[in-house]
């Protein structure tokens, strides 16, 4: 099976890839929090963040098309909220009205800001995952005193997500070879049985994995490579990143 992995470009070599995960995680996380909490961001705030994302893409040698394709995942989720914003917020000039719904300049402004917030946050997370191998991200989480159980669940999720994907693809291929057509009312029960079968197979696999781990002496603690002290370069980048976040907070309404 061939999958488009979440961290497709994480093993490349660039100055951004070589930074310590304990430096990138708080900086990217701080930028995402900043994007979320700024009440009324201005044009310069967004332009600075877009420029920063473009610079990260260029430095890490990540194709812009890949980033745009991955970040399109926000459209089904944020798009619905943006449309609701546009149709329910009523201030500014009225551009269109139908019954209780009206489209105003204020509603459009709020919807665009919501979409930009979501795209910037998702793009930053995509860049973080694609410039840092997943095992290093987990190790950095443990260094920040994240509970071991949470880190263990994340590692299992990453490892077995693609196995579950494989299982689903095999079931779909077997279904197609036996012809899958007709009215949608006849397809729903088949899809329901497929989902239940996939759940049972996943549960059985989880039991086998647990028994294999217990037989090898697993005690519930994730064993990760011990992190080395931060280098001076990483400390300098962390300091510059904090200053950048403070600068963005200063120009948030410009």
Descriptive account of the structure:
It contains 9 helices and 2 strands; from the N terminus they run ααααββααααα. The chain is mainly α and 254 residues long. The protein has 2 domains: 21-142 and 231-250, no CATH class; 146-215. The protein has a two-stranded antiparallel ribbon. A hairpin with a 2-residue loop joins strand 1 (94-98) and strand 2. The protein is flat, with a radius of gyration of 23 Å. The protein starts with 20 loop residues before the first helix and ends with a helix.
SSE order and pairing:
Layout: H1 21-37, H2 43-60, H3 64-71, H4 75-88, E1 94-98, E2 101-104, H5 105-129, H6 134-143, H7 148-177, H8 184-215, H9 232-250
Antiparallel strand pairs: 1-2
Helix pairs in contact: 1-5, 1-9, 2-5, 3-5, 4-5, 6-7
